[in-house]
Amino acid sequence: MRPLSFLDRDRTVAGPGFSRWMVPPAALCVHLCIGQAYAFSVFNLPMTRLIGVGSSAPGDWKLTELGWIFTLAIVFLGVSAAVFGRWVEEGGPRRAMVAAAFCFGGGFLISAAGVRLHDIWIIYLGYGVLGGIGLGVGYISPVSTLIKWFPDRPGMATGMAIMGFGGGALIASPLSVWLMSRFATPTHVGVAETFVVLGLVYFAFMMVGAVIVRVPAPGWKPEGWTPPAHPPKLVTTANVYVYTALKTPQFWLIWWVLCLNVTAGIGVLGQASAMSQEMFPGKVSAIAAAGFVGLMSLFNMGGRFIWASVSDYLGRKNTYFCFFVLGTILYALVPSTGRLGSVGLFVLFFLIIISMYGGGFSTLPAYLRDMFGTRYVGAIHGLLLTAWSAAGIFGPVLVNYIRAYEIARGVPKADAYNLTMYLMAVLLVVGFFCNLFVRAVHGRHHMAAAQDEAVLAVE
Amino acid sequence: MSTPSLPRRTPVIQLVLAWAFVGIPLLWGVMQTLRNAMKLFH
Question: How far is the C-alpha of A444 from the C-alpha of A18, rounded, in Å?
Fold first, then answer.
């Protein structure tokens, strides 16, 4: 018997009587950990004073250098999800979750060494590359497993896991600040020790998920549930092979749907604090702005579960129509809130927008399952996450550069975001049309039943 | 005469523990964020 055979897919097949409600906690064990990525910015300022401690010294790292750590992690999230998607899907969730735990936890430990040696390239390699691979592999694996366990409520199931990714930041941010305060001394900021603790804790937490996780036995169905005899036109009962999906227009249309929805949200997410203070000078203090960012995190997390669950009733295409129509209207109205001086409306509009940003992520796997079937949904989801990486570059660049351009041509700071808001509205209109053109995948792309069985037999 | 053995169902306590394991940290994170978010209204 091979030494690591307990990680194989066939060793994780659930026996009769296993409750599928054990699987969401397993998925959350991973997503609550990797969601830490959204809170990485809490380390930025402390890492600019590793030498100077009280304030930055000449040899200390600059924020621009540190910003690359998160960017690299998100790029490698997309790349690894795309490259390892098929390996994750065919090897089963336990193997993928263990690999993700080693990569993500290991990334922190390597980064701790980077902080100790004061070598930023070690951190790029540790958290950026290795941690990023852990993010990608860890992100897709539990999601595709949940889809298989909840054929009756795929949106709600994936919403639960991806909500965990949003929730991970809510835990990581105060936890990291608390740990740094415990390890800090008058001559030391305590980042390295915090990285070591987080690496070990996250590794252990993710391993618990890997132990709990199970895949359903072939042909398993929820008790009392029968697949609808006539599924909606946009919900397939066939499967599309991962690389065949790349040849379909549906894949690329949904790629743009995700990319545009994320671009519109991610740019303002990073700038929310500065934007609220600059659009309402004297009305929104730095402390209130921090509260606004916190509220946005909650809506980002809640939106992931609520919108994905709603999509089980509305349908995925209609849910994305909601995002694009409502998003366009709200973005177009944001400049008016500045002119009216209405902080309440500004906050309300952005909370709805950010809930739809989160909802875009969590509704996506179920949309892919409807289009391409359950067999390779994890791998296809992985390929599609490259849209997230692309949006991670487009969004902040658009917001930052347009604001700088507007200020350079003499526009007051309070109005410097107006053009960006209108541009975001236009991006969402484009997204609306991409979504509109999504049709059911043509039968010629479906895997033949014999081919499907052959794949299962090989596994 | 032996009766056919029933499939072993997942014990409720196992479900409660699994959900508590992820739910408690998540709840803590939400509470911390909510406390921070309240500053917006002060």
Answer: 37
Per CB-CB distance under 8 Å, the chain B contacts of A17 are 6-10
Nearest to A375 by CA among A284, A453, A293, A266: A453
Look up the ipTM and state it. Answer: 0.88
The verdict on a CB contact (< 8 Å) between A22 and B15 is yes
Helix (H, G, I), strand (E, B) or coil at A165: helix
Eight-class DSSP state of A239: -
Instruction: List residues bridging with A13 in a β-sheet.
Output: A215
Can you tell me whether residue A231 is helix, strand or coil?
coil
CA distance B5 to chain A (A): 11
Nearest-neighbour CA in chain B from A27: distance (Å)? 10
Q: Which of A278, A327, A311, A56 is nearest to A162 (CA)?
A: A311
Residue spans of beta strands (DSSP E) within A167-239: none
Strand partners, A240: A446
How many other C-beta atoms can be found within 10 angstroms of the C-beta atom of residue A400? 15
Q: Measured between CB atoms, which of A172, A287, A298 is closest to B39?
A: A287
Q: How many residues does chain A have?
A: 459
- Report yes or no: A295 at the B interface, CB cutoff 8 Å: yes
CA atoms within 13 A on the CB side of A152: 8
Residues on chain A touching B25 (C-beta within 8 angstroms): 32, 171
Per DSSP, the residues of A220-237 read ---TT----SS--TT--S
Per-residue pLDDT tens digits for A9-63: 888 999 888 999 999 999 999 999 999 998 888 888 889 889 988 888 888 888 8
Q: Is A224 left (phi over 0), alpha (psi -120 to 50) or beta?
A: left
Please tell me the pTM assigned to this model: 0.88
What confidence tens digit (pLDDT) does each residue in A61-81 have?
888 888 889 888 988 998 998
CB pair distance less than 8 Å for A291 and B28: no
